[in-house]
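To close the section, here is one more complete example, presented without commentary so you can practise reading it yourself. The ligand is flavin-adenine dinucleotide.
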Amino acid sequence: MIEAQALWRRHAAALTEDIGYREAGCTYLCADDAEMERRTRWLEAARSYRLGSRLLSQRELAARSGAGAAGFRGALHTPDDAQAEPALAVPALAHRAARLGAELREATAVRTLIRSAGRVTGVVTEHGPVACEAVIPAGGARSRTFFENLGLALPQLAIRASVLRTSPGPEIAAGPNGTGAIGAAAASIRRRLDGGCSIARAGAARFDLVPAGFRHFAAFLPMLRRRWRIVGLGLGRSCFGPLGRQRWDGADRSPFEAVRIIDPAPDAPLLADVMAAAQAQWIVLATSIPTEIRMAILPRCPGPACPVSPASPCKAIRGIA
Ligand SMILES: Cc1cc2nc3c(=O)[nH]c(=O)nc-3n(C[C@H](O)[C@H](O)[C@H](O)COP(=O)(O)OP(=O)(O)OC[C@H]3O[C@@H](n4cnc5c(N)ncnc54)[C@H](O)[C@@H]3O)c2cc1C
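Output:
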């Protein structure tokens, strides 16, 4: 995250367009002593990284976040935690890449890799082959499916989490750069540049069982043990959906063309509950209306790094950066 912040600072300074980059901070509200204790342990573990994070007492929190935070025991606050607006940042970065000589091909699925003598020499797209010396995999939640098709094991599973967006409203907390992000068990909030909020319940997710779930079960067991209360398990059609096990080659229509964007229905009852919790906590949200609800597909790896399995032949394929 430290490296990510350095990169975003550099990009925000180099881009001609405004991407809404601001270091507005992030505040994790603690409901009780146990949560405060957990955040304290995290802070101690992170001390060597010299982050700006610190614990806020109940009084400091009330001064910063007002009456909405009154019921909380304290908070973990990181003043230089940053955010940008995805809808501004993505096109701005794409324009800059193009100005620097990159060629961008939109709505073009990469079906598979072309390999020769143990190294990558190109990719097959739905519109034909493209020669190259290196490939950077960046397929998000669909990366595992892509690599599975090549006989490689990427321990990545996707979960579904629901999120809502509200109509514009006033600031929630009084930071120097605006509200920042506010994390709490019932409802976590990010106030966007347009004044509306993105609100979700952190960790409330659903995992739809796919064949890879069995293959990578052992790797994910520690995470499941910690989170079994909040991760729901679904069985059914997803096994045969875009994240299920499939095989194709460069001549076949790939799953990335069959389903270009995975956009399942959000969990409306959960989001109604999340919105009610947010409004009960923050009086300024009383007049905000949910304007959009979405289901987010989020890739999950068992640990901080997400390596292609060492047991797989991946190391033998040079050219995968
Ligand atoms: C609603 C929502 C809210 C979020 N909020 C936050 C937040 O507040 N803060 C935060 O840090 N993160 C947030 N995230 C997570 C964040 O968006 C992701 O971690 C991030 O987008 C991952 O970036 P990525 O480039 O790895 O993958 P993605 O953004 O998923 O991009 C992968 C791209 O590759 C394309 N692709 C896949 N396979 C192929 C193929 N074979 N050929 C061609 N193209 C392919 C996909 O179509 C997609 O466009 C949120 C996610 C969602 C969905």
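Once you have examined the tokens, check your reading against these statements. The longest helix spans residues 33-46. Residues 109-110, 138-142, 146, 163, 190, 256, 294, 296, 298 surround flavin-adenine dinucleotide (CB under 6 Å).
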